[in-house]
Amino acid sequence: MRFWKLATATITATLLVGCGPPQVDQSGSGEDSRTGTLRVWLFDEANREPKEEVVDAAVREFESDHEDVTVDVRYIAVDTRSERFTGAFNDPSSAPDVAEFGNTDLASYVAAGGMSDLTGMVENWPAASDLSDSVLDTAKADGKIYGVPWFTGVRALYYRTDVFEDMGLEPPRTLDELVETARTIRSQRPDMYGIAAGGKYTYAMMPFVWAFGGELAEREDGSWRSAVDTEAARRGIRTYTRLLDPSICPPDQCSQMTGTESVQAFAGGKAAMTIGGDFNRTAVDEGAAGDDYDVIPLPGRKPGSVAPAFAGGNLLGVMRSSNHSTLAQEFIKVLAGKKYQREMYEAMSYLPTFEDVQDKVAADDPAVEPFIETLQAGTRFVPSTPAWSEIDAQEILPTMAQRIATGEDVRAATEEAARRMNSTFGE
């Protein structure tokens, strides 16, 4: 049995939402005990049982191999993670040794001085050679590794097979074909959006920027600077915002749509296509689309290419205050290792981060293959800086997309977005 629905709440929160940087600092304990209690924080679930069964199995294995060690696992709410981590950074006595956290929170936690550098551990761990390079990049800040990717999530193109068959259409092979296909569908099926593409769906727009060779931001002399006003980025932004058009997805209805709302429109039968995650499958399965849909990787600029997807996901890291650092690293190697990543996929449908495990999963479950193909084509990530949480909270990129959708010139909108981003970066 697959637990897609059980995973959705946590994945949605941890893949899509960042939190501001805790304004604290801490120092390492200097101790490294090999016995005693190893404290672990993991995120809670709508239904914890499947996840807990896998974690408990890993704990039993670890405790059997480590005499005089007890693993104490606590489950914390995703929505209160910022307060919990800030409290742990301020009061090391209340902090865990091992913690699960979202990769979009990494830069903030590192800036707070809260996480241990795991570069040496990963580089000396034989299994790590099979970690997806682009997913491992989401665990890095300033070139150092601060977590082991435990699971990941990406988005691909959902489309209605019945609509395509009725109209004699083939799935789009390029982003330009995607635009034209969506327009054709809307012209013949005015009751549907050609594609549900929200103005507030930044994670759907990002692959367009990257596919056209653009960047969200670039690092120069140690500082981040916006790149959305470059010509390459503008081409991607222009292509995406062409979807927010009366002939495809009317701006008065779509410019305010979020990612969740875009997927809901598809699941509810209001759209012929959408860009959705592996974690959205249950919602689509239970909706009007039912069995009449398929998924392919979001195409890139040229036929046969895949647009780079944003790689969301969660990491397992070691708190800098831990006095069980070696034990903590050894436990992470067990829980985030290949054996339990596969078991976590079976329990929660979390996509594994080891490429050989991904291959086995795709072979056993063809429905997940488009997402694995997207992962292995190479994913991208947001700038690794605490400032990104502020840029996200200010909705700078959604505002830019909405302005373009409602008639503003692309150059003017991207220049304004770049100005606001640079102000936040601390230009």
From TrEMBL:
Coiled coil: none annotated. The keyword Signal applies. It comes from the Bacteria. One of its GO terms (molecular function) is maltose binding. The keyword Cell wall biogenesis/degradation does not apply. InterPro entries: SBP. It holds the Pfam family SBP_bac_8. GO terms for cellular component: ATP-binding cassette (ABC) transporter complex, substrate-binding subunit-containing. Keywords: Signal, Transport. One of its GO terms (biological process) is maltodextrin transmembrane transport. PROSITE patterns: PROKAR_LIPOPROTEIN. Belongs to the bacterial solute-binding protein 1 family. This is N,N'-diacetylchitobiose transport system substrate-binding protein.
